[in-house]
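Design request, tokens follow.
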């Protein structure tokens, strides 16, 4: 019979040995990174703790290393967030996170003094593995034509739960690899002249691979919602976004989404699905289709979008034969100004789309869910690549996918 003392001794040895075996099997444990705080009421002589925060971005950024977090306390900040001075960058699996403190409103209103400067966040060059989360960028005090530019050498940025507005440029300019824009609100950028050089967009995706634009609200931008141009671009995913009331300029050719390659660059394997795209373009605006796939674009998948009330076409596929192998399935395109669908591309697949009255619950109030009697209900193709709807509810509910952005629950 084992007494209690022996039992505890054996149990201790078992736990120690077990921990050792796990460490061998799973590898060494990685310590969590440090957490710092910065507050308008802080002091740069402080250690940057929650109770004794730093006062300036310049000081708060200095100690950041891979895996660390910086929380910005609430208030309106007029400082630039400069990540270049100390070469601030994370590593794979150890992102640096810069975030507004939970439950507090953080607004950055840095007024860039230089035309075409770095904007409110200075982070160009070979830096990556950075998360920006839970704050607002407001360019209302920015007099010059500049904004947040994610550079061609940047990589692995996550922009999450941000609000970006009043920028005298596109809301976000992207030219890097593995850049994600998730659950952001991007609206009301400013075009001072309305001319070709200032027809700004919610997101301007210039070039890069493996990008993700997901779950955003993009509206009231002067030139258009999302401009994907000129490339090269590959494996970009645009899903679960609401894109509406963009394009108020006669000079702009962008409505909701345009994907257009350059004269010598290709855009390939773009996936556009579960987006709600409506009322882009006004009576005085330029060419404003819901989704437009243009020159030098290959292998685009357009699935389960709801496209309604845009000025020109709902779905416009191709300007010529350089638009190849587009797949257009399970989309609702209805009530658009010139037409609901036009195809000028080569080898386009077009099946299971609805261009007649889909019987929305209430389109006038922008409720694009389906009535039970909708011709789009339970009439689509079952697509394994689209396992959820616009709200992230599972598809299909019935025997096959509903057509459009919403699955009928």
């Amino acid at each position: 019979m084992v007494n209690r003392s022996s039992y505890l001794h054996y149990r201790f040895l078992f736990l120690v040995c077990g921990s050792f075996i796990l460490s061998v099997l799973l590898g060494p444990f990685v310590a969590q990174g440090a957490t710092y705080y910065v507050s308008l009421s802080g002091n740069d002589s402080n250690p940057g703790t929650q109770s004794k925060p730093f006062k300036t971005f310049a000081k708060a950024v200095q100690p950041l290393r891979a895996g660390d977090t910086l929380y910005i306390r609430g208030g309106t900040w007029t400082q630039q967030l400069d990540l270049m001075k100390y070469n601030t960058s994370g590593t794979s699996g150890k992102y640096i996170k810069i975030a507004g403190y939970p439950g507090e409103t953080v607004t950055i209103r840095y007024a860039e003094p230089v035309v075409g400067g770095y904007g409110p966040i200075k982070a160009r060059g070979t830096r990556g593995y950075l998360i920006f989360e839970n704050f607002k960028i407001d360019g209302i005090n920015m007099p010059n034509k500049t904004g947040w530019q994610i550079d061609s050498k940047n990589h692995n940025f996550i922009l999450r739960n941000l609000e970006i507005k009043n920028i005298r440029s596109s809301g976000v300019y992207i030219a890097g690899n593995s850049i994600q824009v998730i659950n952001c609100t991007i609206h009301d950028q400013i075009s001072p002249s309305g001319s070709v050089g200032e027809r700004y967009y919610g997101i301007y995706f210039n070039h890069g691979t493996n990008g993700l634009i997901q779950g955003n609200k993009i509206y009231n931008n002067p030139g258009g919602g999302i401009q994907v141009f000129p490339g090269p671009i590959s494996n970009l995913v645009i899903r679960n976004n609401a894109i509406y009331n963009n394009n108020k300029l006669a000079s702009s050719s962008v409505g909701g989404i345009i994907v257009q390659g350059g004269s010598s660059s290709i855009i390939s394997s773009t996936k556009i699905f579960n987006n709600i795209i409506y009322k882009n373009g006004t009576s005085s605006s330029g060419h404003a289709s819901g989704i437009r796939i243009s020159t030098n674009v290959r292998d685009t998948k357009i699935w389960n979008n709801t496209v309604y009330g845009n000025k020109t076409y709902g779905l416009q596929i191709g300007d010529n034969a350089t638009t190849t192998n587009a797949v257009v399935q399970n989309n609702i395109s209805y009530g658009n100004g010139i037409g609901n669908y036009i195809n000028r591309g080569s080898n386009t697949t077009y099946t299971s789309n609805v261009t007649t009255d889909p019987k929305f619950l209430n389109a006038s109030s922008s409720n694009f869910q389906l009535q039970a009697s909708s011709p789009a209900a339970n009439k689509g193709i079952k697509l394994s690549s689209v396992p959820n709807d616009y709200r992230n509810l599972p598809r299909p509910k019935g025997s096959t996918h509903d057509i459009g952005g919403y699955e009928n629950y």
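Comment from the thread starter after seeing the answer: thanks! The domain at 32-288 is CATH 2.160.20.10 (Pectate Lyase C-like).
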